[in-house]
Automatic annotation (TrEMBL):
This is 5'-nucleotidase SurE. Belongs to the SurE nucleotidase family. One of its GO terms (cellular component) is cytoplasm. The gene is surE. It holds the Pfam family SurE. Its EC number is 3.1.3.5. Residues 3-195 form the Survival protein SurE-like phosphatase/nucleotidase domain. NCBIfam families: PRK00346.1-4, PRK13931.1, surE. The lineage of its organism: Bacteria, Pseudomonadati, Pseudomonadota, Alphaproteobacteria, Rhodobacterales. Its cofactor is a divalent metal cation. A divalent metal cation binds at residues 8-9, 43, 95. It catalyses: a ribonucleoside 5'-phosphate + H2O = a ribonucleoside + phosphate.
Amino acid sequence: MRILITNDDGINAPGLEVMAAIAADLAGPDGEVWTVAPAFEQSGVAHCISYTHPMMISKMGERRYAAEGSPADCVLAGIHEVMEEKPDLILSGVNRGNNSAENALYSGTLGAALEGALQRVTAFALSQYLGPQNFHADDPFEAARVYGAEVIRKVLAAAPREEADYRLFYNVNFPPQPADRVLGTRVAPQGFRRHTRFSTEPHHSPSGRKFLWIRGGEQHRPTDPGTDAALNLEGYISVTPMRADLTAHEVLDPLKAIE
């Protein structure tokens, strides 16, 4: 199996090392693992691509490249420039922090998986929820490290074979617990954290100029029962199948009144 890995935390992020180990397990001794990851952190860029300016790409080692672009750029570079043959699988992450609920919409980790699906390659985004039980652990990524390859194998075995224009990709979030406290895996819809959202926080430079930091919302508010973040906070790995099709299909018929 040929696997392309990337992330949004950057080429030197510890989560990428975890992903490389997961990919090596899946690829097997006769497989190939290729890395094309952002040269610098690209968190929060979603499905951004560098459409109006070029990006530099540098070889860092055997089958290992850094690109001055977004995670989606890295997928494009991997498929169309770096790899000798198209990958069988694209893995993005392991992100430091969850991409459950509305976080999925901002996530560069998911942006890479989405681009993989648009390129007609099976793709997964993997993210490690952080909390009091694992934030200061020797290995905050332990749950993802231990269960990552197993979860991907199970999804690949159970997933429907399809040729849809907008192909499936998979959002996997590991709970904020050490591996021995993980309760299992649940297939779940994307949730929504109510009463918390991104905002801005102003600061002034020594010269008096005003700057704004983007501030995240509270991450430990549960979503509706049975949805991704709620299950993560209960101790479960969540698997959410997704598509890039943004159409609100249930509204098409009611809106036909305007025709």
